[in-house]
Amino acid sequence: MGKRSAAAAASLVKSPAQKGHSWFWPYWDLYLIMVPGIVYFIVFKYVPMTGAVIAFQDYSVFAGIMESDWVGLKHFKEIFLDTEFYTVLRNTLLISLYKLIWGFPGPIVLAILLNEVRRMFFKKTVQTLAYLPHFLSWVVLGGILYNVLAPSNGIVNGILKLFGHEPVFFLADPNWFRTVLVASDIWKEIGWGAIIYLAALAGIDQQLYEAAVVDGANKWRQIWHITLPSLTSTIIILLVLRLGHVLDVGFEQIFVLYNPMVYSVSDVIETFVYRTGITQADFSFSTAVGLFKSIVGLILVVAANKLAKKLGQNGVW
């Protein structure tokens, strides 16, 4: 009897190879689907990170990374001694802050409004029209904006002329350029951003609304006491992720729309890195600026995540 018990116990103990088969083979197809995504991040995200070492070198294209001279924190010191950098940083923070204040609530409002629509044809039409700009490049949208906002024959200035106002060159006026940036970014991304919130709204228990109706709550009360609290965790997570990109204001958008007349209000870190790194071939300095931006984003994400957890919300991790 003892020998049989020992044999049964031994049969239950799995070897490392058997354990590997137990967690891998039942889900091999799912792991296979993950491979392209993993390869993408390794090749295009992690491998290029090794090039960040040139921020600590006087990098020479001809000498290469291995032969270039190491200079430590020299280029980081140059960043804070460069007066132009402070102008660029101020523009970046202001544009990012405007986009956060006006652009972040936009998808939430749109999702709530769409969720209240009961005519499916109208709802689907509005959704399609709201999603469409996301799939257009800024090159296409930039051409549209140039024509719509043109001072001579643009639609907007045509309306202004009808009311007796002088035409405004929106894309060449420093007082208007940031407004155009923020408004066009909201127009392009509001529909796409609303998708996540619509999915979260679909998961709200409808019995909560039924109970609220019985208690006499109108639509505004239902939104305030049921809808928004149910979206809080989703809003917090997306806000934390958004703070990680607080210094990313959209290179393609600004590069397509800006011109020398509005450099004072539109030159941001991304265009500054492009100009110093590509056009002036100062690769080490531009890499240091880009690394500085990434470090700031990392600090903000970690701090925002800790703050969210202290407030009793679920963080990103």
Automatic annotation (TrEMBL):
Keywords: Membrane, Transmembrane, Transmembrane helix, Transport. Pfam families: BPD_transp_1 (PF00528). PANTHER family: POLYGALACTURONAN_RHAMNOGALACTURONAN TRANSPORT SYSTEM PERMEASE PROTEIN YTEP, PROTEIN LPLB. GO terms for cellular component: plasma membrane. The chain crosses the membrane at residues 27-47, 93-114, 135-156, 176-202, 223-241, 283-304. PROSITE patterns: ABC_TM1. It comes from Paenibacillus thalictri. This is Sugar ABC transporter permease.
